[in-house]
Amino acid sequence: MHDIAIRPEIVERVVKRRGRMRLFERLDPARSAAVYIDMQVTFLAPGAPVEVPMARAVVPRINALNARLRALGVAVFWVAHANARRDDGASDWPGFFDHFVSDEARARTIAGLAPGADGQKLWPELEVADEDTLLFKNRYSALIAGSSPLEGKLRERGIDTLLIGGTKTDVCCESTARDAMMLDFKTVMIADCCAALTDEEHRDALETVIQQFGDVMSAEEALAALGASG
């Protein structure tokens, strides 16, 4: 896991702005969901074109957290990334693949993220329960319009609080957290269940979220807010 902490000057800024560090001292398990972003083969497999090595390190922490969340009645959602191919072989997200991915890596990346491909399957070391929900998104944020059915599924179940983990902290997790807050969900990033390519990128994303978009908690802090004992 990333061994970092939010810098003291950021903590001071947050407290000065809103009068306290925590936005949400208590969370309702019945109205909460853990949402894990992109914990799939194409991001976790060694040597994958978009590998995030640190994401493998947070798998045990995610498994341990989920066992306790499910016991509290917290819903667990897995959101994997999948981009369909057009008839010409290009991706349905040309704004990304045509400009942000090199010619050398484009075909391999598109293949790894195609619906049904091995690359978009959840990492096999994750402990997924029958009652969990698996969804797919086709943009960084799982909550931008048209990206995935996540918002509708959450609203149907009366969920108003999201605990966000997964990878990368500073890309898809942060993008989803930003949109969650702007859709009026209570938003919490679970710091030790997120992974980025570097400690600095991880920390920067958490510092952005805590200043503008939600809370940042460890797994244990989130459990305490949900009323878990011990």
Q: What does this 3D model show about the protein?
A:
By secondary structure, the chain is of the alpha/beta class. Among the domains are: 28-73 and 83-128, no CATH class; 139-160 and 170-181 and 196-214, no CATH class. 39% of the residues lie in helices and 17% in strands. The protein has a six-stranded parallel sheet, with helices on both faces. Helix 8 runs parallel beside helix 9. 43% of the residues are buried.
Average per-residue pLDDT, rounded, comes to: 92
* Strand composition percent: 15-25%
Rg, rounded, reads 17 Å
- String of helices and strands: HEHHHEHHEHEHEHEH
- How would you sum up the major sheet? 6 strands, parallel
Structural class: alpha/beta
What is the helix tally?
A: 10
List the helices and strands and how they pair.
Layout: H1 8-18, E1 32-37, H2 41-44, H3 53-57, H4 59-72, E2 75-81, H5 94-97, H6 103-112, E3 133-137, H7 150-156, E4 161-167, H8 169-182, E5 186-195, H9 199-212, E6 215-217, H10 219-225
Parallel strand pairs: 1-2, 1-4, 2-3, 4-5, 5-6
Helix pairs in contact: 8-9
